[in-house]
Request: fold
Amino acid sequence: MVKFTINGKAHSFDGDPAMPLLWYLRDELAMTGTKYGCGMALCGACTVHLDGQAVRSCVTPVSAADGKKITTIEGVDAERVGRAVQDAWRKLQVVQCGYCQSGQIMAATALLAANKNPSDADIDAAMSGNLCRCGTYVRIRAAIHEAARALT
Reply:
């Protein structure tokens, strides 16, 4: 039995501990905000927080979450940093197609939780594994800077 907390709510899983966390979130809990992109941890669409660290849920087995706190896009606004990031995303109209944006927001939130005043290089390094087919990288970076200003 694997036990963990998702967005502040206790959960347990008695299935295959090797199941990717992404499938548990989407298929078992119907939390479809976390997206399937590549299945190989290359695109970032499936990014969630595991004890505050951004991880790719498509390659993270449910067993790796045992005893840990998971935050998904559905719960990221429960904390000040997540709200600031989402507010900046809306203010600067970052989203185009939107498919990658839950992963982008989760990565940006993890960055700002660890580094309250990131440089462009810090942002580029933290966001480098998150792909955006629409090419909104300039707006993503601007929104991260906007969220950082809002948090000071």
